[in-house]
Amino acid sequence: LSDAGLVRWRFHDRPLTSIHPKTLVAHEAAACAAEQGKFWEMHDQLYGHQGAWVAARNPEKTIAGYARDISLDMGRYNQCMDTHKYLARIKASEQHADSLGIVSTPTLFINGQPYDISSNGRMSYDSLRVAIEAAARRAEAGRGGGAKAGAAGSP
Questions:
Q1: Which residue has the higher pLDDT, 131 or 56?
Q2: What is the DSSP string of 93-121?
Q3: Chain-centre distance of CA 100, in angstroms?
């Protein structure tokens, strides 16, 4: 779908602090990793080891281990984390998500409209493809453009 130009993927911070009180440090770590071009590597570490850092007494230390594992410059990473360089941006993204009524992750939008995963059953590639292709046909018929999809997430 992305190769066909039907999908534009956007990852937005959506820390669900009410149910995941340690998530802000994970969002900050991902942002600091992105500064070194390794957002997705950190993302994968955070999701792959979520049980470990959530259960840890010191999630910052556990997550710093993931930063080492993906070969981040630890001086830059530690400075970024210690100064909370991206915390204001993450909080602003959280407030924006609240204003859009986003209360869970993932949340998908197709042409600016939330894709209701709960009413569409279990999310699958096929159900998303059908929804995106239908939106693309409607958009093409209505204004000559294509469909755009986006997502909000929380490590």
A1: 56
A2: HHHHHHHTT--SSSEEEETTEEE-TTTT-
A3: 15
